[in-house]
Write the structure tokens for this entry.
Amino acid sequence: MNLPALLTEVYDRLYAAYGPQGWWPGDGPFETIVGAVLTQNTAWTNVDKAMTNLRAAGCMTPQAIRDIPEEELALLIRPSGYFNTKAKKLKAVVEHLARYDDDLDRWRDREAKELRAELLSVYGIGPETADDIVLYVADLPTFVMDSYTQRIVDRLGLTPAHRTYDAYQALFEANLPAEAPLFNEYHALLDFHAKDVCTKRTPHCEDCCLLPLCPTGKSS
DNA sequence: GCCCAGGTGGGTA
DNA sequence: TACCCACATGGG
């Protein structure tokens, strides 16, 4: 099976097994950006506590985060871990948003790769966070990779020659139509599969929907 | 108590 | 380019 067909088969199997995931369209573009930063190497349950604190303090707007002292911001987001670092990151991000008068709708007309490159220049925004924002905020097609999705790629025997973020990402982007809704759903399905179905405790579940596609005979 | 969570930036060779 | 390491809380 060629790569486009294989990746389409993977998607179809995941979708059939789990249905639509509905990741991150709900709470508005700015909350999505905040969540993308706070969730860096952090469980979402902890991010949720920090987000609740920010809302309760009236700090869930770019201007409010610009106005609050960094030390107070750090205190609010403490439950999400790395709070000093993340406070600095959020400050850097909202500083960047001021260029657009905090109007994130302006990103929707951009080229995905160009916006991605711009975001990467902001302190605290690395490849995954940039892709989160491009895909889930600007609604532009870029494929989000993370540790879970890389693990599934590996189990499918598709590990790229250079095991870099960009190489894993290119695997999907070069072999699928560049459609934001597809990339959105695909990433969410991969993540759900790796995190909530094939956990480390049961790495090779016998009824895994991807098992027939894994060359090693082990599921993801 | 131990491991890990939807990473990133800075330093070193 | 390719590794290290610090950053830090909370749940299983």
Observations:
- Residues 180-197 of chain A form the longest helix (18 residues).
- The domain at 29-136 of chain A is CATH 1.10.340.30 (Endonuclease III; domain 1).
- The CA atoms of residues 81 and 153 of chain A lie 29 Å apart.
